[in-house]
Amino acid sequence: MSRVVVTGRVPDAAIEKLRAEHEVNAWTAPESIGREELLRRVAGADAVVSLLTERIDGELLDAAGPQLKVVANVAVGYDNIDVPACTQRGVVATNTPGVLTDATADIAMGLVLMATRRLGEGERLIRSGQAWKWGMFFLLGSSLQGKTLGVVGMGGIGQATARRAKAFGMEIVYQSRSELDPGIAADLGARRLDLDELLAVSDVVSLHCPYGPATHHLIGAEQLTAMKSSAYLVNTARGPIVDEAALASALREGQIAGAGLDVYEHEPRVHPALLELENVVLLPHLGSATVETRTAMAMLAADNTLAVLGGARPPAPIN
Ligand code: DGY
User: Fold this and answer.
1) Which of the following CATH numbers is that of domain 101-282: 3.50.80.10, 3.40.50.1820, 1.20.1050.10, 3.40.50.720?
2) 50 with 7: CB under 8 angstroms?
3) What is the three-class DSSP state of 205?
4) What is the pLDDT of residues 49-82, one digit of tens each?
5) Which terminus of the chain, N or C, has less C-beta within 10 A?
6) What is the CATH T-level fold of the domain 3-99+291-309, as seen in this structure?
7) Separation of alpha carbons 124 and 101, rounded Å
8) Catalytic site residue 285?
9) D-isomer specific 2-hydroxyacid dehydrogenase catalytic domain: which residues (predicted)?
């Protein structure tokens, strides 16, 4: 029997699955586990099931000890994990791709609609108790039909967002390290562009690339200036892909029309300038937040853990 430490609350089904084979020590309080407590708890663990709010670095791996075999992140993004540090110590790192694709694409499309149709502004107006009445020019947004969606990062979530946008009558362009499978590209009618071209032609730019040194501030002042003044930016990937101060200033100055964000540069802190603006929709990292999706993520993390502890290749290895 191995010792599994779970760093935060996850659906019971995953804990039961792990407990059927191993000793499980799970953090169950609603608030995040503190760093000190985390370092204390992982000592002697064979497996760590981690949430994206916990930093898994050399210090933590050393605190766990040389018997540690696997770090199973309950997320598709793994910028919270120092993967080279895991590899160096012979620790397998895993993530949860696939199972949150549709839920995240739903939120991306939701943000596209909220931003372009000014749904947040409308909701806030009603709740404020202010007088309002239907008017020809009241809270006009912009239509999606015939407009262009620029997808940055055309992996599973980017493709799922493009499929939704296509159903709303949008044209699809994308920027990605590799060319789409020709069948999928034809299905979506998607054209591959470089980032500059994509920014210049898109009416909505939606970010779906992973975060790392290569994508830090991928969208900054220069890129925002390159966008149409009528365009919108949507980010459901990772906050630091966007220079938030530059975005706030572009929104304030009307360099772009609006934005929809589910993730933040210094999450959970939101840049105070964004809070002052009407033309940005702000969600609290809800991309994968459905009961079904969170359960599937936790079960895949449990499967990853059990596979490594059992000496098998996990379903979703990173390294
Ligand atoms: C992920 O899995 O990376 C998501 O951001 C979680 O919502």
Assistant:
1) 3.40.50.720
2) yes
3) strand
4) 999 999 999 999 999 999 999 999 999 999 999 9
5) N
6) Rossmann fold (3.40.50)
7) 29
8) yes
9) 4-319
